[in-house]
Amino acid sequence: MAPAFRMGVQPRLFKSGVLCKILNFTYNPTSVARLERATSGDCGTGSYNSNGFVSVSDGTNSQEYVTFPTNAINYNSTAVVATKGKFAVGDMSSGKNGDGQRFGSAANAESITDVPELILSYGTEGQVGYIRAADIERRTGAAVTLYKSDGHTPIGVFAVSSDQ
Predict the structure, then answer these.
(1) Single pTM value for the model
(2) What is the pLDDT at residue 4?
(3) What is the 3-state secondary structure (H, E, C) of the chain?
């Protein structure tokens, strides 16, 4: 039997402000005082940190919160991570596109409303683009489309993981 009060977590892993990996929400199966979930991934050598979302529900009402980011860890990758096109951390543009959608990094979001509609992300083949925030809400182990900042032009896919 599920507890009346439920808590869920959805961790996200960032490399230099670019979303590298996101896991599905995991909820407590029984009454607990805390809930932890680790992230792991390899998007190449760089500076990594993690933050995510917490969802709480009393069975009637629910609310989501952004977690505090972890301190950055510098990681030297042994994996060969291909990148398509030229990209540097300084190229992380943000702003609004022609449809009025905000695009940019979600790494420093302090609330749900701070998360842009289009989140700067690494695709499964190393390309850098944007995923729609609405496409990753409550996803379960699926791939979502990676777009240019216009939010219409597909350039690849981003995998939402159900495991670490």
Answers:
(1) 0.79
(2) 72
(3) CCCCCEEEEEEEEEECCEEEEEECCEECCCCCCCCCCCCCCCCCCEEEEEEEEEEEECCCCEEEEECCCCCCEEECCCCCCCCCCCCCHHHCCCEECCCCCEEECCCCCCCHHHCCCEEEEECCCCCEEEEEHHHHCCCCCCEEEEECCCCCCEEEEEEEECCC
